[in-house]
Amino acid sequence: MTGSVQLRALETLNRPSVADAVFDALHQQILSLDLPPGAKISEVDVAKAMGVSRQPVRDAFYRLSKLGFLTIRPQRATCVSVISESAVLQAQFIRTAIEAETVRIACLKLTPADHAALEAILDGQRQAILDKRPLEFQALDDQFHREICVRAGHGHAWEIIRENKAHMDRVRYLSLAFASNEAFEDHVRVMDAIRARNPDEAVPGMRTHLARIRKQIIRIRAEHMQFFAQEAVDD
Fold this sequence. Notes:
Blueprint: H1 15-31, E1 40-41, H2 43-50, H3 54-67, E2 70-71, E3 78-80, H4 85-109, H5 112-130, H6 134-151, H7 155-164, H8 166-195, H9 199-211, H10 213-223
Antiparallel strand pairs: 1-3, 2-3
Helix pairs in contact: 1-3, 2-3, 4-6, 4-8, 4-9, 5-6, 5-8, 6-7, 6-8, 8-9, 8-10
């Protein structure tokens, strides 16, 4: 393991949950850039640092590689994947296509109980901003979007999104330093439209919200060039 990366030991866990716990811990550290793009990590080092055997680490590495967070090459070091701007924009395209439709359906199908559940998530986001807890804010951001899909009757849509948004997640995390209030206000506008059962407001509101990353990534790349792949990007 390179640099000053710190991995905390895990408490004793039931065996079936060890791989999930390792995955969750690594996923959070990659997302928060405690494990930055390009960092080299090994099964041996992670297993030792977390106090587990190599098998759950190997399982977690595989899951993270399938999501696009790790690059695993035989006989070479495993690295945290650098951010691909083209992958970010592809994920944004997929999310917009899917979530524009799910939010339209949500306007027509969601009940007052569903509205209350979504409002509770927004209350949590508001508090996370006040307490300066960006990882919690981002987790609630994902929960808000996922619940719209699930409550609209299309939870499978979120699974497709989740499989395609790894690079987008790290850019979103970096954007929170300057754009969390804007993201929250977008959510409030979308929520207002859902509650009013107004897809003509909800759909463009969701599109605007998800499109913000296209401008944010320009600033983020300029400030963190070392995190990004060298590539030509088509708009």
